Amino acid sequence: MKILVTGGAGYIGSHACLELLEAGYEVIVIDNLSNSKEESLTRVQELTDKELKFYKADLLDREALDKVFKEQAIDAVMHFAGLKAVGESVSMPLGYYHNNITGTLMLCEAMKKHGVRDLVFSSSATVYGDPDRVPITEDFPLRATNPYGQTKLMIEQILQDLHVADDSFNIAILRYFNPIGAHKSGRIGEDPNGIPNNLVPYITQVASGKMRELRVFGDDYPTPDGTGVRDYIHVVDLVLGHLKALDKLQTNPGVVIYNLGTGQGYSVLEMVDAFSKVVGKPIPYKVTDRRQGDIPTCFADPTKAKKELSWTATMGLTQMCEDSWRWQSNNPDGY
User: Fold this and answer.
1) What does the pLDDT look like over 296-322, one tens digit per residue?
2) Which residues are catalytic, by number?
3) Which overall architecture, per CATH, does domain 2-181+231-261 show?
4) What is the Cα–Cα distance from 311 to 302, expressed in whole angstroms?
5) What is the rounded distance in angstroms from the CA atom of residue 83 to the CA atom of residue 289?
6) Cβ atoms 190, 198 nearer than 8 A
7) What is the DSSP code (8-state) at residue 293?
């Protein structure tokens, strides 16, 4: 099978490409390299000793997208491409709505035009907003609290409407919790531009001396230590869930929705402590004001994915921290 991976040079996309190649799939990547590096794909090919096809293009470029579908007999799509920083989305809502939603609309139009009907969509736990309770199941009310989450929520609705209009589409919507970690080789990992928006790359850059201290956004949340609690999942566990979702699409299920998380929540300070143990020294941090759009607690009930996809996260917090640190240590300046 030939799989088109949008955003395939990015953090999660590159790990997906690696696992797809290892599983025997052919991989086509489209990425505009706005928050990623082509070097990640070079390393994926070196690690797997297999080749993939890369197109540097934007989903908003209809002609470029059409060219990819014309040149490649694509069987299914994994859609990772999109802007993804919660804080940035609050200050740049129009950019987020245009990029994420319009890009997905154009991708779906290209799929429809070229007869491709299987799609795995990278959604997010942000669609649940600030949940009334935890753990979160897939039938919880949806109420995103920031523009990034709203784009994911709107795209989910678009994809469900698409299936209603054309039931030959089979779509797996995967709601991620917080991916961290890196490939065990230390050769591919998360390489954000500028100051990281996500906790773990921020911690690893402080641990390596690249940044002076970690900013902890708020310590007055209603949680055991006052800092935000999240469900951290190893990126390799996460992308293996995508391969299971791809298998599920072969059964013509229509639209299926799954949480991909571990079911275990850790606070920011617990993460700092776990990383301190892995790197063998304290991680300096400073508590600052809460960040707009953040919520106190968020962790998954992954039972449905276990039952219907035969998927479960297998890697624990120590391994996530060790793999993140290995990537940062081997690549202090990223790619």
Assistant:
1) 999 999 999 999 999 999 999 999 999
2) 148
3) 3-Layer(aba) Sandwich (3.40)
4) 9
5) 24
6) yes
7) T
What are the structure tokens assigned to 45, written together? 């090919």
Residue 285's φ and ψ, nearest 5 degrees, are -145, 160
The rounded distance, in Å, linking the Cα atoms of 310 and 302 is: 11
**Are the C-beta atoms of residues 213 and 286 closer than 8 Å to each other?**
yes
Residue 178 pairs in a beta bridge with 232
Cα angle 129, 150, 134; round to 5:
15
Amino acid at 64: A
Distance CA 179, CA 241 (A): 12
Rounded mean pLDDT, 12-39:
97
Provide the pLDDT for residue 85.
87
**Selection from 48, 135, 134, 40 nearest residue 80 by Cα:** 40
Find the helix or strand (DSSP H, E) in which 77 lies. strand 76-79
Residue with tokens 């950019």: 95
For the question of whether the overall pTM of this predicted structure is more than 0.90, the answer is yes
